Amino acid sequence: MTSFTTPDLFDDHCDNVQVADSGLYHFGKKTTFYGKVVTVTCPEDNSFAADILHENGKGKVLVINGFASKRFAFIGDIMAERALNNGWEGVIINGCCRDIEILATMNLPVMALGSTPRSTLKRGFGDKNQAITMLSTTIEPNDWVYADINGLIISKTPLI
């Protein structure tokens, strides 16, 4: 993977990127990642996220819109293992995650608003390929995201 920092990317591309407000925390062992965005919306139901993680994720980052809910965890250790097995570069959640003691040992980058032990409902609700508004940004399918311990940058085009 190419080495970068989000401050350097911002300095080089400040007129062409969005920067997410502070509020996302790293839960995976790996904290630097980037890729092309795939989005799912999950209204208190992570069914669509669970399904999409069965797909090949090479070069892709899954962005889950949990609508900033802190009631439910939209990913845990089982889904994280599935993401790793299918080559996903990382997962960003506009919501919470769980099993954080296990996520901390996994090489899957996971960024979320927080953690909670409660799993989502499983009703098959949700959608794919929708724009997600979070932390003063709008992330669209096929955008590029770059993340590290400093934060998250969103771009319409590849930066590295």
Can you describe what's shown?
Helix 3 (77-85) links the parallel strand 4 (60-65) and strand 5 (90-94). The chain is an alpha/beta fold. It starts with 5 loop residues before the first helix and ends in a 5-residue tail after the last strand. The strands form three sheets. Strands 1, 2, 3, 4, 5, 7, 9, 12 and 13 form a nine-stranded mixed beta sheet that branches. A two-stranded parallel ribbon has the order 6-8. Helices cover 17% and strands 31% of the residues. The chain is built from four helices and 13 strands. The model has no long low-confidence stretch (mean pLDDT 96). It has helices spanning 6-13, 47-52, 77-85, 100-103; strands at 17-19, 25-26, 33-41, 60-65, 90-94, 96-97, 110-112, 114-115, 127-128, 132-134, 137-139, 144-148, 151-155.
